[in-house]
Write a sequence for this structure.
């Protein structure tokens, strides 16, 4: 570790991984409810379990991003973190808010949680992914402001590199767009229009800045390629991300009220959205081929290349598959959407977090530059099991989606199957998806166990800690 | 090659491109918000519709259902349930919805189960008004057929 204050990233990473594990458990529960409809009913109804699954995803990714920032910003800026104490306090505030929110989802009916947290005073609850009680949303904003202040002060006091500038731009954008979660008009059409300002402009906008800068940091460290080259790539990637992604929001505006010209705008710009993700893949592979050193942490390099490929497949290819308006007319809100969502989130944002965690954890744990070769082998098994399982989850959901469109959407009204009858026909795909999900869980266990095997250091620079 | 396309050029494309498209997007948003009243028929957005939306949210309906294709994909689309289950007749739909909500959970073994939300008659009426208003938003004729 170059700076002592980087150590504050460790609890963020550990907690992120614990939430990740819990997210997968709930994924298995709702996956099973797709075929055994009354599984755990009425104790954990589908809506509660799904909310836990998606909200845990968002929260663990945010924990990961924060950990990444606390780790890389001091190193990039060349100074200690502005306040380690603030980072520690905010960790506990955010963890407590997260745990309380999830406990609330599971322990009482949602309507009770809404009543208990006085949602009627300032209604923001009950919209997909933004289900958190208003008070919890305020908590997220407070944590984000403190975090941005801490990171911002650190950068101001130190070196302003392209990487830390892009990172904080992305993080500022993340906080700014989240403010739209407080805008919930009585008019559903307006509500939906601006809801996407949080959801789309996060994952297909500012989060790409965060992802790009984390990837650039890890590649500089592990390949030794010249910073100038990497920074130029980073600019190209984020330029393409914003040029395509901002108007690309239009692919969500086809069928929720806005005028038909969005069909053209959304189709054209979102068809270009794979470009930045493709650039990330080319970037990662190019830098690894041009590497000037052989970094002992080969697992981190695998994650870095993997996130490029999987983000391109999940966000790029599977996004493109259903983004053109005439196609989307048939696939909108079908299992195709679910297929895309799973691989895109895993490939881009879960894997970029696992990349920085893989790179930073050995350093934070005092193992030197890398975990032992044995631990890395186990970690790479985790990589392959989780990644291949996710490919299968995506393929099975895609199969389900195609069949759903065929049975439910394509025929005319008198021949189309009802939603529930269609679901019965898709059961075999959902069973296979659940099996792939179990495979993912085994990969996750494998990944976790890599932290406990062969703790002996490979590097001569070993600390105890 | 490195000399032809410099880091500064890449940075300028990033800054220029994003500022341009942010402004373009804000312009489009201004136009969309201005034209929205003719699309969403807000003249029909009564207090009952607004109360219905709050009920929709506070019972996390979106956690299973989709509304205009957005939400979870576990239970039927409800943006057009007024047409599907009420044959676009207000009285018929309200009668259906009250009966449906009261009957939950259906307790069919293995079937996806909808919880009992304990809504009273006024609340079900509000919820119905919200779904009826939603079904009349001009959304470029989605979904493709009545099954949603």
């Amino acid at each position: 570790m170059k700076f002592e204050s980087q150590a504050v990233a460790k609890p963020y990473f550990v907690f992120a991984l614990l939430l990740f594990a819990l997210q997968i458990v709930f994924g298995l529960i709702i996956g099973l409810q797709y075929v055994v409809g009354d599984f755990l009913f009425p104790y954990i109804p589908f809506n509660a379990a799904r909310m836990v699954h998606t909200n845990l995803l968002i929260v663990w990714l945010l924990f990961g991003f924060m950990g990444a920032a606390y780790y890389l910003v001091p190193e990039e800026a060349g100074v200690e973190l502005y306040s380690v104490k603030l980072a520690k306090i905010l960790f506990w505030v955010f963890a407590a808010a997260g745990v309380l929110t999830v406990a609330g989802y599971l322990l009482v009916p949602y309507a009770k949680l809404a009543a208990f947290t006085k949602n009627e005073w300032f209604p923001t609850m009950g919209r997909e992914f933004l289900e958190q009680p208003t008070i919890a949303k305020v908590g997220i904003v407070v944590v984000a402001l403190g975090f941005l202040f801490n990171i911002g002060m650190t950068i101001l006091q130190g070196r302003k590199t392209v990487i830390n500038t892009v990172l904080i731009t992305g993080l500022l954008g993340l906080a700014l767009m989240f403010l739209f979660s407080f805008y919930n008009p009585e008019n559903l059409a307006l509500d939906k229009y601006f809801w996407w300002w949080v959801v789309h402009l996060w994952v297909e906008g500012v989060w790409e800045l965060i992802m790009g800068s984390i990837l650039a940091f890890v590649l500089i460290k592990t390949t030794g390629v010249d910073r100038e080259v990497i920074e130029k790539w980073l600019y190209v990637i984020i330029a393409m991300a914003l040029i395509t992604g901002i108007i690309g929001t239009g692919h969500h505006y086809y069928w929720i009220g806005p005028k038909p010209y969005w069909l053209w705008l959304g189709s054209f710009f979102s068809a270009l959205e794979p470009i930045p993700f493709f650039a990330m893949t080319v970037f990662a592979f190019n830098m690894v081929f041009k590497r000037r050193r052989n970094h002992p942490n080969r697992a981190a390099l695998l994650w870095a290349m993997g996130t490029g490929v999987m983000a391109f497949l999940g966000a790029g290819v599977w996004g493109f598959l259903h983004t053109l308006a005439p196609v989307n007319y048939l696939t909108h809100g079908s299992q195709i959407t679910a297929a895309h969502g799973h691989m895109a989130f895993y490939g881009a944002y879960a894997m970029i977090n696992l990349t920085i965690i893989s790179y930073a954890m050995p350093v934070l744990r005092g193992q030197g530059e890398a975990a032992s070769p044995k631990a890395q082998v186990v970690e790479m098994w985790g990589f392959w099991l989780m990644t291949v399982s996710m490919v299968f989850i995506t393929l099975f959901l895609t199969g389900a989606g195609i069949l759903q469109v065929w049975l439910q959407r394509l025929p005319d009204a008198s021949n189309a199957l009802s939603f529930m009858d269609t679901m019965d026909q898709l059961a075999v795909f959902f069973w296979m998806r659940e099996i792939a999900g179990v495979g993912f869980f085994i990969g996750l266990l494998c990944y976790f166990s890599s932290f406990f095997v062969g703790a002996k250091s490979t590097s001569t620079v070993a600390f105890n800690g | 090659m490195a000399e032809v396309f410099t880091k500064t050029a890449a940075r300028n494309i990033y800054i220029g491109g994003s500022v341009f498209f942010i402004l373009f997007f804000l312009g489009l948003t201004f136009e969309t918000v201005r034209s929205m009243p003719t699309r969403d028929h807000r003249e029909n957005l009564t207090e009952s519709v607004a109360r219905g939306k709050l009920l929709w949210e506070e019972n996390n309906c979106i956690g299973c259902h989709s509304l205009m294709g957005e939400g979870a994909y576990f239970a039927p689309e409800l943006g057009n349930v007024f047409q599907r289950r009420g044959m676009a007749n207000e009285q018929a739909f309200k009668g259906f919805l009250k009966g449906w909500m009261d009957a939950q959970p259906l307790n069919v073994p293995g079937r996806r189960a909808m919880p009992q939300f304990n809504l009273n008659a006024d609340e079900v009426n509000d919820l119905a008004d919200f779904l009826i208003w939603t079904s009349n938003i001009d959304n470029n004729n989605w979904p493709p057929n009545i099954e949603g």
Remarks:
- The first helix of chain B runs from residue 7 to 40.
- Strands of chain B lie at 66-67, 70-71.
